[in-house]
């Protein structure tokens, strides 16, 4: 039965249009950052969450891959793992005081969310339309958005 269903769906794909019908998400205009709004009420937020502008952009370099690491489910972590994770979080929070402009700090992460999900940047082609989908436009910029913790050394990486 399953083989028959997969054959049916495979055949259906042969007659469907392989092109996506959705419009692509365009990157925001980074120099045009405005006021952020509460998503539910539309009220202005009393914060300036626009990222700093710089013409000196540093290319992101991936760290060397040493081994495949799999993060365990939260309910299965060991005490040692949890202690290392809590230390990494403490270091991220410390960055807010030591270097408030470091994108790895919690406040900068909140600012990124605020700027791209609360309307400080208009979605190109859709004025006054703000959604979390805009955040996807930043995925090619891991040095700006994607912060992760290397579990082999528990260093904070960009």
UniProtKB/TrEMBL annotation:
Coiled-coil portions: none
Protein name: Catechol oxidase B, chloroplastic
Classification of source organism: Eukaryota, Viridiplantae, Streptophyta, Embryophyta, Tracheophyta
């Amino acid at each position: 039965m399953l083989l028959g269903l997969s054959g049916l769906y495979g055949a259906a794909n042969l007659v469907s249009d392989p092109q996506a019908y959705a419009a692509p998400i365009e990157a925001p205009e980074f120099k045009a950052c405005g006021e952020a709004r509460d998503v539910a009420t539309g009220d202005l937020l009393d914060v300036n969450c626009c990222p700093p502008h710089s013409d000196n952009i540093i290319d992101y370099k991936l760290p060397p891959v040493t081994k495949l690491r799999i993060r365990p489910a939260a309910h299965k972590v060991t005490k040692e793992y949890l202690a290392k994770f809590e230390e990494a979080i403490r270091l991220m929070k410390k960055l807010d005081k030591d270097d408030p402009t470091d994108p790895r700090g919690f406040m900068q992460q909140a600012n990124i969310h605020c700027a791209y999900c609360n309307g400080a940047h208009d979605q190109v082609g859709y004025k006054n339309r703000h959604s979390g989908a805009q955040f996807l436009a930043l995925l090619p910029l891991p040095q700006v958005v994607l912060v992760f913790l290397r579990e082999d050394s528990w260093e904070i990486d960009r």
